[in-house]
Amino acid sequence: MQTYLDFEKPISDLEGKIHELKKLAAEDESIDTSDEINRLETRVREATKEIYAKLGAWEKTQVARHPQRPHFVHYAAQLFTDFTPLAGDRNFGEDAAIQAGLARFNGTAVAVIGQEKGHDTKSRLKHNFGSPRPEGYRKAIRIMEMADRFGLPIISLIDTAGAYPGVGAEERGQAEAIARSTETCLAVRVPMVSVVIGEGGSGGAIAIATGNRVYMLEHAIYSVISPEGAASILWRDSTRAREAATNMKITSDDLKALGIIDDIIPEPLGGAHRDPQTVIAATGKVITSALQDLGKLSGDQVRAARRQKFLDIGRNL
User: Fold this and answer.
1) Topology of 61-312 in CATH?
2) Which of helix, strand or coil describes residue 265?
């Protein structure tokens, strides 16, 4: 069952009519609805193209959060082979919001790190809705250090509203864990490619997104705080999230123009949730190209280029 966003009502109405016509034709084979269905499908494509060509920052936020948008587990299943998840931070425990392990990408051994939100109530609770606790970031540090030791490129897939702000997380050093994870990203001497596939929220995102190459899907968002959080702080009114999203410059187009990300990965018409396999394949091609370019550099050059990349942000604005 397709889930429609508020601004997709014209699409929902048209596809609802198509569903009714197909159901009618299935119940009575003497009724030919093919011409009307073809006409409505053409209108759906036109409406979708028109609507998605004019998406604002708040609408893109909704698309980035779409419940049917492909998550880390879908990318891992399609892009990697021999994926072996590794658990625990060797300090406190396991955090399921961050998934990490070793795999093969196009036949090459790599380390993989990403946030998983879950797709239903049970899995969302298991993965804490994609909001990692300190042990998740310490697990990421462990995997990155292992990758550095064995010369494995690192691929990170970012999709989180932010790190978990609970009391227990703060007691166990959430801020320190995020800082250490970011520091480790900058310190490793192996290529690191990061892709924001949904939400990139605050330090919870950048802790595993400080890569040599940082990409975003077309309708992903990347920001220091959620629009609702920014509205609550600035105006003490979370209902002004739309206004906050626009002013914060959180879309892929905004961040490409500001030099925060390296490039944008196009999504299928109507968003990644309408054709997950295509967008995952496109992401794989971008990662492949980036790793090929970075593979020409020495370890010291890889690390120096990554550090310089982040030092340069904001200097030429």
Assistant:
1) 2-enoyl-CoA Hydratase; Chain A, domain 1 (3.90.226)
2) strand
